[in-house]
Amino acid sequence: MKSGINALTAAFVAGVLGGLLLTQDGRQWLRSPTLLLGEQAAASAVSVAVDESAPPTSAAATLASTTLSPQDPAALKAKAAQGRLRIGVFGDSMADGLYTALYRQLQDEKAVSVTKFSEVSTGLSRYDYVDIQAKTRRQIEDQPIDVAVVLFGTNDAQGISLDGQVHDFGTPGWKAAYARRVTDLVALLSERGVQVYWVGLPRMKRDGFDAKMALINAVVSERMTALGVPLIETTALTANAEGGYEAYLPGEAGKKVLMRANDGIHMSMAGYLRIARPVTERLKRDAGLDQPAPAAPVASPAAG
Fold first, then answer.
1. Which tens digits make up the pLDDT trace of 194-204?
2. Residue 138, class by beta-carbon neighbours within 10 Å (0-12 exposed, 13-18 middle, 19+ buried)?
3. pLDDT by residue (tens digit) across 226-271?
4. What span, in angstroms and rounded, lies between the C-alpha atoms of 261 and 249?
5. Burial level of 151, CB count in 10 A (0-12/13-18/19+)?
6. What domains does the chain contain, in order, with CATH numbers?
7. Which residues contact 219 (CB under 8 A, 6 or more apart)?
8. What pLDDT score does 284 carry?
9. H helix count then E strand count, the chain
């Protein structure tokens, strides 16, 4: 009986692998299966040799040729003055928490609306899973916005398939491909008059994962500098005095507060409010919402 079950299992696995090899998405998954299996299981999955010797020419050309109009705080001030500053939050599960915090911090601003466009388990590496470029285009066509707050990365430490080549995470080819994905997303938003604010990834608990997020932060930082887009960094904001990970950090009153979720990746609500605060302050400053309202004119006493 056991040998029969083993035979059926082997036949099933062979059938699944054969089916995957027949489709482009399946072949991409076999090259980089970490999204579905996780890092440990993926290590024992089918591996496909990837040639990293040739740089991704089209990715490099896209980066070199992309220029954006400068960010224009005056436009934000004008829209806020008109009573309609529409903010959209894009990203993964980390951005979900950021959205909630921004909504709380901006809910008293009558001119401002904050909308969640983020989605869990998404990122900029696996467009065979969710094509963020296409999804974002649909989202802003259906619901136009003035400002995009973007936070991606926690799902992106895996290979990228671009122009028929799969680039392993951390290689020069991967960095160029990821930089192209970041650039393309910012360009898509900018071309539609949306001003972009990119939020960096926080300090992570596991050293290995933290190093991967630091690599992603470095690629994003270079791109934001080149594109003239504000980058709100959160690594120092989520680290202790020595620069390391710590779940409890001083709150506004000086008392230590739990800032992180149990997974050592995501934040507690207090933590999301912490990383949202500099974003809120920057948005309010650029939109002129940090200025006190002008005093109402005092009526002159009527002449007797």
1. 999 999 999 99
2. exposed
3. 999 999 999 999 999 999 999 999 998 889 999 999 999 999 999 9
4. 13
5. buried
6. 2-51 (no CATH), 63-286 (3.40.50.1110)
7. 175, 178, 179, 182
8. 96
9. 11, 9
